[in-house]
Design brief:
The protein is globular. The protein has helices at residues 5-18, 45-59, 79-86, 99-107, 141-150, 165-176, 192-200, 211-219, 265-280, 282-291, 300-320, and strands at 31-38, 63-70, 93-98, 118-133, 156-159, 185-188, 206-210, 223-228, 252-259, 294-299. With 324 residues, it is an alpha/beta fold. Strands 1, 2, 3, 4, 5, 6, 7, 8, 9 and 10 form a 10-stranded mixed β-sheet that branches. α2 packs antiparallel against α10 (282-291). The chain folds into 2 domains: 31-125 and 252-320, 3-Layer(aba) Sandwich (D-Maltodextrin-Binding Protein, domain 2); 127-228, D-Maltodextrin-Binding Protein, domain 2 (3-Layer(aba) Sandwich), CATH 3.40.190.10.
Length: 324
């Protein structure tokens, strides 16, 4: 059968009218504005996650505009109550958080926890990396473990807030080396920037954090990466896991987003829809590759159940550290 040009155009128009594209695919964003709350200072992992979400959402035409607020301190425990109290019922508000917040809530015995916000989606998982300053006395993994075995209290290690993933990784390493985790000389910082400065300034013997927070300094040769804490090596990063180095230790740092308390089911579903589309976008896939993040997307109620499991596991480790 032959179809002339006029018939072809008529058929195409009819077909186009019958196929309903989603609003964002037609150039209409899911949200005009998203209020993004980051319970940490600029420059750290949560802030980096929030900015990556902004770039991906804007690039995919999902959100017109983002408004940011950063409130750092105590592993999110300064900012979290502010988000809970000031954003109640706001369906276009998102807060970035993660495993650090679980430990910080337990350590600080905070009356406000992740249970007071609305889980939207777990997004990424990142292995921690153990580094030493290139200008420091400790140069190798053998040097570091020997120093810890001799006297953990003499080996100061910088990381995020007390009780967070970084602190937990150090405690697990010390325990695996046969010493008491309570002997850890852990130096907590509110953000990645101050921790970087302390390591580079030789104010501490070593540091623990997500790879992306130290990557620039590692590539510049100012920090030496000794080990990563995940179950597998970070793709493209030639640094052994703790298990490869003989320690039965594995831990990683997950990050996700939360809605405000008191939002409706419809408002929650819209936020879940937004984040689902963000993570499916080419822009987000590029962020994962660039930052060496592992995607562990989990939304809504399954995410909420995973949080409860994480809280139980973290509490057990923090008891070993004398923090819970």
């Amino acid at each position: 059968m032959q179809v002339n040009k006029r018939e072809f155009m008529t058929m195409g128009a009819a077909l186009g009218a019958s196929v309903a594209l989603p609003a964002w695919a037609q150039g209409q964003p899911v949200f005009d504005t998203v209020n993004m709350f980051v319970p940490a200072d600029p420059g750290g992992g949560w802030d980096g996650t929030a900015r990556a979400i902004e770039r991906a959402a804007k690039g995919a035409g999902l959100v017109g505009n983002f408004q940011f607020e950063n409130v750092g301190g105590a592993g999110g425990m300064v900012g979290l109550p502010r988000f809970v109290n000031q954003r109640k019922g706001q369906g276009n508000s998102l807060m970035v958080g993660g495993s650090v917040m679980v430990g910080a809530a337990l350590t600080n015995k905070s009356p406000v926890t992740m249970r007071n916000v609305t889980p939207v989606a777990r997004l990424t998982e990142e292995s921690s990396v153990i580094v030493v300053p290139a200008a420091g006395k400790i140069k190798t993994w053998a040097d570091l473990t020997a120093a810890i075995k001799a006297n953990p209290k003499a080996v100061s290690v910088a990381g995020g807030s007390a009780g967070g993933t970084d602190h937990i990784v150090l405690g697990l390493i010390i325990k695996a080396l046969g010493r008491n985790p309570k002997e850890a000389a852990y130096v907590a910082f509110a953000g990645g920037g101050p921790a970087n400065a302390a390591i580079l300034g030789n104010q501490v013997a070593a540091g623990v954090s997500g790879y992306s927070e130290f990557e620039e300094q590692i590539k510049a040769g100012r920090m030496i990466p000794l080990a990563v804490s995940g179950n597998a090596r970070i793709p493209g990063v030639n640094v052994p896991t703790l298990r490869e180095l003989g320690l039965n230790v594995a831990a990683s740092n997950w990050r996700g987003v939360f809605g405000a308390p008191g939002i409706t089911t419809a408002q929650r579903d819209k936020l879940v829809d937004l984040m689902t589309k963000v993570t499916q976008s080419a822009q987000w896939q590029q962020e994962l590759t660039t930052r060496k993040w592992t995607s562990v997307f989990l939304a809504d109620l399954p995410f909420q159940r995973e949080i409860e499991h994480n809280i139980s596991e973290t509490e057990a480790v923090l008891k070993d550290l004398g923090l819970a």
